[in-house]
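User: Predict Exportin-T's structure from this.
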Amino acid sequence: MAAQQQVNVTDLERAVLYAFQYAGASLNDAESQKIKEEAELYCLVAKQTSYQLFLQLFEVSSHDEVKFYSLQALQEYLTEGSALHAQLTYNMSLHIRTKLLAWLQVQDSLPSFVKTKLAVVIALLIRRDYPDAWGSAFHDLLALLPRGPFMVEMYFCILNATYEEIVEFDSTRYGAEYASHNMKIKDAMRDGPTSCIAQSFDVIYNVLTAYDQSDGHLLALSLAGLETLQKYIQWVDIALVMRFVPLLYHTLSHFDALRCRAANCLNQVVAKGMQPDKKLALYTSLDLVPVLTALRQSVLHDDDDVCEEIGEVVNTVGLELIMCIDSFRQTNDQDRYQAASAMLASLMPITWFLFAHDSTDVSQEVLEVVNALTGLLRSERPQDVFQPSQYLSPWLHGIYRQMRYPDEADQVDDAEFEDYRRQLRSIYVNLTRMRPDVILQYIATLLQDALQNLRTMDHRDLEACLALVYHFKEGLTGVEFPQQYDDPQGPFMQLVVAIHTAFLAPHLNLPAFHYRTLCMYYEITTRYSTLLRIDSNLLLLLLQRIFGSAGVGHLHPTVRSRSCYLVLRLLKSLGSAVHPHMSQLLQAIEPHLVVPGTDASAAAAKADGLTLEDQLYLFELTGFLIGSMPAADNQLKWQYVEIVLTPQLAQLDRCLRQPPSAEISVHLASVLNAMTHILKGFKSRQTQAIFSTTLSAAASVLLAYRTSDIVRSKVIITLHRLVILLDPAVFLSRADVLAVLMQCCEANDVVEVVQLMNQLIIQYKTVPDFYNVLDRNALPFLQRMVQLILSDQTNATEKATAQK
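Assistant:
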């Protein structure tokens, strides 16, 4: 099909079919790609030739996909802003309209995708010519309805497409003129001689009243009618809508297949924009709460989908009533204030039922109103009719229920659930801040039951219970006398003691607990660690568990990883309180201080089950423990340093004796990383030979792998620590290391090298020998920078980094 040939409908149909057939052709299939490109080019030439080709093709083709493509092309002609739109005149649009409506009259069914696309094209014709050039648009369409159910359904599709193209338009995309034209269309649809909304609503009403559950055609029509009604409720007169309310109530109570759509329509009714006084009057006339309450007794226990949609209605009503209450309070409208408050109170039972629902999706539908109630609680006064504090028990119950992790068999998006849990935590923290004693009483009751049934309680319930204890402290910011909650003998800290006593009981098989429960328990031990500072027995029992099969040695990787991290945080927070247990701690940690890499260490690491990232927490913990030992224990302190660093130095030495390889460079970097984490525990200059040996080892590694990115990075980090620990003369004795770093740097580690040099300048500003080193290396370093900036191998980002 050459582009120069005259376009005809037969070839155009073939081109469209080829375009569909080869749309998914492999890029490696040259023949298929050629056919596809030729077909697409022919279609493009046809579009540039005339709309009539596609109008004819739509009429004559027997292929649904060709009809769809033809309608898509006509849509392009009718869409403002498209390249083809300027070609279309009024006579052309009249021609399209006449042909399509004539074709539509003789149809009795269409595939849904063709039906939807046809509706869009007719909606665009309405947008173009109604009401000025085609004032009878909707009356022409309404006149087709007696032809049968298909025409009624098609009319609903056209109304839906009209809503999308005219009512819900993007004014920022098309500008003020387009918005003004759309407003003109909307006004004409609502009022005046060409109006159609009242007649259209009559059609929907007649369809819904004729609904018969045994008739599949009526089901499809009713669903389509409810979808259309839902779209138009917001911008039509409320009087047109109110006659549907009893019908919607009846549908909610009796027709399973229509309930969700009926609830969607009700939500649009209660969400209509109004002043607070009119909104309250509407809600009073609707008498909606008894209907919703009746649903709770019947259908809401069986259908989660309906619960979701009803939840949306409840959420909207609740939010609107809260705004009404605030408004009436400000205007001192006592009668309306009391009426709105009473209505909100009557809405609470179904709100809390939905909030505590087993389905997270249902609960999320009422989250906004539940969150908004915290604002009323914050400003609650004794004389208020609606007292949010009366609902703290179901409020907290809902939070507790929803904070439970989903059952592992449920198909729940983990990220979405974690986000929802964060929102719940925020509400819980706010409630704690406002009513800490009430919250404490609730979690005490909950925890008492949990600890009594520790072995049999569902792990999701237990973890959620512990989570409430964990997050309680976050709500204590700003409360009066917060120190009462830190008192070891106070009621809250005694709850923490009870948790420890239960979880550390000798007869309890702690490793058998679910991994999330264990992790949350260890989180609690870390957050409320002050208790362990004064109870060494509890601390010893905890350390035995966390370094055993219930923690660092657990079967689940999350427990192992969190145990390593949390025990580091825990023992750091305890400070000198850990010194009496130093020997036991180091003995417990020592088996895990093997960096995997060589065959032997890799086998040990595999048996250990810890990743290098997990181990680094333990290396850092080791350094902290040894570094924090008192001066009186200096001799023992340096013995411990030798014990933990010597095996790492030996690993470096063994690796350097082997032929260089990428695998060994990674292992060397890992060992250096581990040693650096140990060195974090030491904060001042030391004279110990082990540190100068560490410097020599790091230098040897760099000299052997001077261009390895990962080795260079870890050597620089090691040097950052050694600058603090070593005497300047000792450190500068290996100035060759600095020279290699500066002269062999690449664009990706320039910043790291400069940061090291900045640290040295600050630390050694009074050391003359350092400036000699700097003088020898500054010019070569700058020359290297110029090379990197000019190099074709350096990308734009790296060049900018080097220049900076």
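The radius of gyration is 37 Å.
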